[in-house]
Amino acid sequence: xVLGVALAVAFLASLGAFFSASKARMTRxxxxxxxxxxxxxxxxxxxxxxxxxxxxxxxxxxxxxxVAYADTPGFSAKTxxxxxxxxxxxxxxxxxxxxxxxxxxxxxxVGARSGALLAQQTAANLHASVGxxxxxxxxxxxxxxxxxxxxxxxxxxxxxxxxxxxxxxxxPRAPPDNILLLPDALWHRYFDPVAKVQPxxxxxxxxxxxxxxxxxxxxxxxxxxLARAKNLEAQLSGGGVVGDNLGAQLDAGRSDALYAQLLFLxxxxxxxxxxxxxxxxxxxxxxxxxxxxxxxxxxxxxxPARILRLAxxxxxxxxxxxxALGLGGAALAGLLAFGTIRFGASSGQALxxxxxxxxxxxxxxxxxxxxxxxxxxxxxxxxxARAIVGPPRQPLWARLYLDVILLAAAGLIFWQSVRSxxxxxxxxxxxxxxxxxxxxxxAPVLLWIGAALFAWRLSNGMLGSGRRVLRRAVxxxxxxxxxVVAASMSRQRRLLSRGLVIMALxxxxxxxxxxxxxxYAAQSRVxxxxxxxxxxxxxxxxxxxxxxxxxxxxxxxxxxxxVEPMQHRFAYVGxxxxxxxxxDPRTIASATPMSDAxxxxxxxxxxxxxxxxxxxxxxxxxxxxxxxxxxxxDLLRLRLQFAADHAYHIVQFHYVGxxxxxxxxxxxxxxxxxxxxVAQQTGSNAFQTLLVRTSxxxxxxxxELRRVLGPGSGATVQDVDSQLRITLSxxxxxxxxxxxxxxxxxxxxxxxxxxxxxxxxxxAERRRTFAIASALGANTRQLAAFVWSEAVFVTVGxxxxxxxxxxxxxxxxxxxxxxxxxxxxxxxxxxxGYLIAIAAITGAAVATAGSLAxxxxxxxxxxxxxxx
Length: 868
Known about the structure:
The longest helix is centred in the N-terminal third of the chain and has 41 residues. Helix content is 56%, strand content 17%. With 868 residues, the chain is of the alpha+beta class. The two termini are 21 Å apart. Strands 6-10-7-11-5-2-12-1-13 form a 9-stranded mixed β-sheet. It is elongated, with a radius of gyration of 35 Å. 45% of the residues are buried.
């Protein structure tokens, strides 16, 4: 019983270590994922020097640099005989040391790292390069010509050009297509005069880096950062508004903390309950003897109060010892699985988790020892307590068919949640939010409880009414004693059914946990591959695309299995600018998986075949189909940029299907078309993405691809392993590796305890029966028939029922956590190796328990009867 309590306490406290590590990791990843923590937008008329002093002295600020922004009506450049112009854009003035202070904001591609730096997309639009002379217009003043010193990329353009101070409900503003960076002195020379004639065209921000002194809990860190931002706005007295990038990231981390709690409910609670049930079964195994001992004490004059004090002392010692062992084991498990011995993200949380686990452990000991003793004292007489055989009584829940009701309710709730499309995690417009319906949690809970009760009903019914079938089943082991063995098992059906249910619950916990975790791990890689595009992907934002001979150069590289080019253009659907991907539908699947979940209304192969059969066909996202009320076969007049004049012209397409996900595509609206048709219509066969499937190490192939492309290509090369690390630190993709190790190891321990210990204790309870049979002349082989028949019945029956229940539980949990998987899995993944190992350890535990029971029957029967 001490070990049973220790198991329950260790698992609960280890979950506290999981929360501690997870929350600290969420906060750490949120901080690392933000380069500019705050963007302080100064209001017109505010003194820049005075604001700089206030911001630099604010609590937690370690770096603050002024960045100037100016609107420009457009850029222009002359290349040879052609003259290119662009639409409106931004000219940014950056201070010295900006790239060192915020290294993630600017990525240098070609040329110098200072001076006039032109964004890659703008350089492509103007056909400009290092040394080119470009012009930019100034509102109300004459245009300016300047020499380009370098070409750059702005990875964080979305946040860098965000609208600071707008209402949270306002639609996000896309970054400008055309951007030029100038040293702040040069910027002020050109745009200080603009501030006098058109003040609204220029503005100043301070980009701020905060200290790494945040609390480990994302909720506490969010509250601290928000309070500091409000304090700074108060100190500026209306002179500035804080764009809290770090606070927004931490706010998403708070949602992840809720997601961790959901995992606790789905994956942790069943394990803790199972440990408690094992403890209860261990306690119940000595119930008959305990009642007889209490009856003897009462005959000899012990009062009920004294008996309760003795039971309380026993329960207290069991609870204290089990809790101490459990907390020590949890600290060790947390260190091995999560790298921490803390049971919470903060000292207060760690103390609460430890105290909560201790209270549950001690309470479990009292519930399984003291409460039965108190109940027996109040309801059972001395003669009843000394009776060995009592009439079997069917439990109330069985008479009410509660198990059938629970299973039906679980099925109804699950069907309702799937039919309504409920998702616990939603991502509208790519912003993850959690929508919790606790009624939905009832489906797996009711299924688990109902399956356990139904397993008891099946076992009890088979042992009670199916004696003829049972006799035939045990005949290979019992031979001529099959009738006697079947009768003995029927008489002990309550005891055997209890062991079978514990086996089934252990099996369901192991199977459901293992299947969910391996499915999660597999889909995490699918998600990473979907985001990355393939095992290795090379991309460029330049309209000229990747080098034309790159496909032939990459194919012979070691570790490359397939190469597929893909266009990434832009198209106007009405006034909505969307990403357009040009592919070869017949060969795209050779380089990257095409899942059925990517498309609507058919299998991936069918949808791609339909796209290939019609040159002007186009696949459209759900959102666009809904917004524009499209029907299959409708004519779509899209505007694409032509190579001849770099202007957007109308190209006709026909809508043939829905695309929901696609490699490298954004989460919102996009289009997929035939690359050959796009190239024919636009006059350019340039492709901007290269998808590579590897047969070896993706990072090694990525390194070779970077070497082939060269440093001046401006292309970005990413491998799926690196993307997987990013995915597992994302907003809704929690890394379950530590929790997986904990739960699967715990399932191993429970499998051994439930199979060996529970079965062994059940056999030990019948030492009297075996001793009497031995006294009547039964030999060891005949007694072994009883032992192995019962062991096989409990083990095989519990394993089969547990496997079925576990698979159903995993199916329900995966369906209800569909939002975690992007895309949703097409099927469950089965970890055969782990399940075989679980089966092996269960078989070994059963064999050990049975062998020890048989060995015990060899002792003299008279000695055993005297001990009992």
